[in-house]
Structures are given as structure tokens and as C-alpha cells.
Amino acid sequence: xxxxxxxxxxxxxxxxxxxxxxxxxxxxxxxxxxxxxxxxxxxxxxxxxxxxxxxxxxxxxxxxxxxxxxxxxxxxxxxxxxxxxxxxxxxxxxxxxxxxxxxxxxxxxxxxxxxxxxxxxxxxxxxxxxxxxxxxxxxxxxxxxxxxxxxxxxxxxxxxxxxxxxxxxxxxxxxxxxxxxxxxxxxxxxxxxxxxxxxxxxxxxxxxxxxxxxxxxxxxxxxxxxxxxxxxxxxxxxxxxxxxxxxxxxxxxxxxxxxxxxxxxxxxxxxxxxxxxxxxxxxxxxxxxxxxxxxxxxxxxxxxxxxxxxxxxxxxxxxxxxxxxxxxxxxxxxxxxxxxxxxxxxxxxxxxxxxxxxxxxxxxxxxxxxxxxxxxxxxxxxxxxxxxxxxxxxxxxxxxxxxxxxxxxxxxxxxxxxxxxxxxxxxxxxxxxxxxxxxxxxxxxxxxxxxxxxxxxxxxxxxxxxxxxxxxxxxxxxxxxxxxxxxxxxxxxxxxxxxxxxxxxxxxxxxxxxxxxxxxxxxxxxxxxxxxxxxxxxxxxxxxxxxxxxxxxxxxxxxxxxxxxxxxxxxxxxxxxxxxxxxxxxxx
Length: 588
Ligand code: ARG
Known about the structure:
Blueprint: H1 4-18, E1 28-30, E2 39-41, H2 43-51, H3 55-64, E3 72-78, E4 82-87, H4 89-100, E5 115-119, H5 131-149, E6 153-157, H6 165-177, H7 200-216, H8 218-232, H9 236-259, H10 277-286, E7 290-293, E8 296-299, E9 313-316, H11 324-338, E10 343-349, H12 353-365, E11 374-380, E12 383-384, H13 401-419, H14 424-444, E13 452-453, H15 456-459, H16 467-486, H17 502-511, H18 514-523, H19 527-547, H20 556-580
Parallel strand pairs: 5-6, 5-10, 10-11, 12-13
Antiparallel strand pairs: 1-2, 2-4, 3-4, 7-8, 8-9
The structure holds arginine.
The site of arginine (ARG) has 8 residues, from strand 10.
């Protein structure tokens, strides 16, 4: 289906043309003065210079041609040259009847679908997930769903941090605790045990313990670095331990992401691409890009136009070790080879901005990806506590994701039980579902690049711009529709009628905007714009609900039309929240 504004533009373009003006001037936008009109066109102002006429005259000429329009109503030329107008009620009603039959609710697919590769999540194996990883997962999941809905082919990769110092730290700590294990015996030639020598709970305790020791004890740290190095060089026993750490940790990560309703097509990691490094480095040397500087191997990536200095990429340190940058470049080698995507999108903490500038420039310079491949860094801001500082636990530690989710769920559970709207046995499940909406919406409704305050009280509120408010609206609609079905009404049939009151029209106008809201959210990779739309739609629905007697309406065709508006509102809201990454219960 064509977007509503496009249809309005067509009507205006005809009027511009018959009045003797350029039809391309007929750009239409939602009015920024909703108290005056629903839509507006500023084309007369834009065209004044070329036409050598005052804009008001042009506007009046155009308006004169629109007097009999079936599409626009209340058309007015306003100083200094605005054309203000409303949408004709019956035209709007027909448009909504069309939406009822459209499985895509008026959202057109992307004209040229692209192959989009997404890198988000980015947890580090064996380290507990923390709130920083939460943002990447939530934002990435929503952008993925939006892009797929718009018709893109999307490949998502979690890109595990599984090759770093944390592995050496764990190996070292295990060595201290259990020196008798065969993994540490260099002369051991048999098969290592299938079973990991630790559980996830132990692993979670071992890492912070080892990390703490390494900060205080120089020798311990050197040991861990050596263990990391030996593992990376392929020491058999250490690789066997690495596999155990990976499998225990990944099993746990999968559970966590499942709970968040976040999924990935690929569970690749830093370790998977190490094999590309030697060849990649040879190529960069052969091209004359990589050279030695104070023992390290580097590539210059600065540009004359840089406002701030961009330091060179370090490919290899003086001890021959590769770095985060090297791994990200090697990852691009693999992604290009296996998928050759049109665009690769990274959703990572914005403090890694410079790293990605370096990686992208180096990859283009070295021809790892073609010039036309779009490399995008979507850097997100920090999630802060109410004190405005990065989110901490009560005792000042890094807040673990699990605990944060639990805190929200407990608060939700309390509210739901208080409301007595669901059976006690269902309250736990409902609290989980609503809690997830609270967390995800709380995050997504902010522009991703900005820092935001994680406020449990606000996020879990049933009122205001929150996830639970959207769910509450959905539950309300479901319950009215269920009552109408119980009454044996033949709902879901019949046409949408022209609106009879203002709140009804406002709801209809809002429903007609979904296509445009989705297009913007997709193009700008901005789930917060979809949130803003869904919030406005919910407000419009609730106002209509409070001002209208729906089920007791005596005019049956009017009542059927109301019910159609309810169906459309429900479908639009449910489609919208699914694209944000959560769902609604039947009651709450
Ligand atoms: N593991 C990294 C971290 O915790 C994030 C990885 C982001 N993706 C990437 N390709 N570098 O900071």
C-alpha cells in the first residue's frame, strides 16, 4: 500500500500543476501545529523565488484548485504561504479499510533489499554478562527484526570474546588450585576428560578471583599472560581447557540470551578468525601498508581531514602478539569471504569509536572489503544509575545482567499481584513478560547514542512512556475484543466509517502513520522512533477509549467500525512491540 502522505502529495501535486506550478513542490508533512491542521505543505514558500510571486498568492492559487477534493478537507492558505489541511474523513476511512486487508499494515518493503551483516551482543566468554552487553543485545535484536521486516537479508553474529587474557587467567587459577589435572602435564599424551573440571558457578567465581589476583600480583599476571600466549600458540592441554571453558560458558550464555528473547544466526568468536591473520598480514606487508615501528607492526590510517589525530593500527605488538584490532580485521576477512555483505553493522559501546574508525579505514585501505561495502558503527551510550554514574550494584560492584533482570521482575511481580488481574499461578510468568518489556522499552525509547538512566520505578510503571504502558493498552484492547466475541458480535467484518468525533479521527490518523514510522526507524536505525510512534498510538487509542462507548454503541455499523479500529490498533501495536523485541500477555 502507498503511504498516506504520498496519496496526499499526489492530490496536492495535481493542484499545483493545474494552477500552473511545479508539482514537485507538493511536499507534505504531518503538521507541526496540530491545533491548526493535520497536515501541511510548505511548497509555496519553496517555489516563490523561482515563480517570482509572493508565496501566499501561490498558496491561494493551489487552494482554489482543491475546493472539490475528496482527499483533502479544510484546505487553507495561511500567511506567509503555508497550505494547511486535514484529511477527508471518508478518504481516511477507505485508507484504513485497505490497511485491514494488508498483512503488512501499510509498511512497504525496502525497494532494494540489502544483505546486512550485524555484529552485536559481543559477550566475553567466562566473564559474567554485564549491563553494557545488555544494550548491545537489545538494540541489535530490534534493528535486526526491523531490517528483516523491511525485506533485508540479515545475518547476525554474536562475535564472542573468546581468545583473550581471561582464558589465560582462568587457566592459571585452575593450575594453582588443581596442579594434578592432566591439562598441565606437558608429557600427557592421552585423551583429556570429556567432562569440564568446573561448573558454570565455579567458572563465575574463578574469573573474578583470578582477575583480582592479577591486579595485585605482578608474577601472577605474567603467568596468566604466558598461559594465554601458550594457548594461542596451540599448547594441547590449554586448548583442551579452552574448549571446556567455551562450552560451559556458551551453554550459560545461550540461556541468558534466550531469556532476553535475543538470538543470533552465528555464534562465532575471535578464536575462529585467528587462522586468517598470517596471510592477512603478509598481504598488508606486500602492499606496503604494514611496516615496523619500534618493533611493532603498524598501518597508518590517519587522514588530512581528521580533526583529532587517528593513531595507526597496531597489527602485531613487539612480542608478536596480535590485538583486538588484528582480530576485528581478520573477522572482516572471513565475513567478506563467506557472506560479502552490502553492509556490516557493529553495535558496540560508543567508547570504542576510535577502534572502529581505525579498523574500517585499515580494512578499506587493504582491500579486505570492497570500497562500496558500507561499514557502520552504531555506538551506544552508557546505562547509568539514578545517581548519573554507570550502573552499579548496591555494594558498588559491576551490576550483573541476571541480577538486574531479577530486580525488575520482582518489582513487576509485586505490581501484578497487587493488581489482582491474573491468577497467582500465572503472576510469575506475566511478571517475566512485562519485566522484559520494561527493560527493553526503557532502553530502546532513548536514542541509542545517548546515555540514559536506568530507573526501575519509572520503567515498571503502567503509566507514561513505558513498556508496561504499551502492554497495558494491548491488554485493554484484547479484553474489549474478547468481551465482544463473548457477546456473539460479528466483529472483524464491515467497513471502517468516516470518523464522527475528534478522538476517533486522531486514532485513525495515527494508525495510518505506521508505514512512515517504520520507514524512518529502518532508515535511521532508530528503534526509538518506533517507540515514539507506538507511544503516540497508545495515547491516541486510550483517548478514544475514554471518550467512546464502544460495546454499547447502538448504531451497529458504527459499532462494527469501532471494532475494526480496535483490531487495527491491536495488530499495529503487537507488530510494533515484536519489532522492538517483546510481546504482550493476555492480562496483567
Ligand atoms: N567483546 C567486546 C567487549 O566486550 C565487544 C565486541 C564487539 N564486536 C567487535 N567486533 N569488536 O567489549
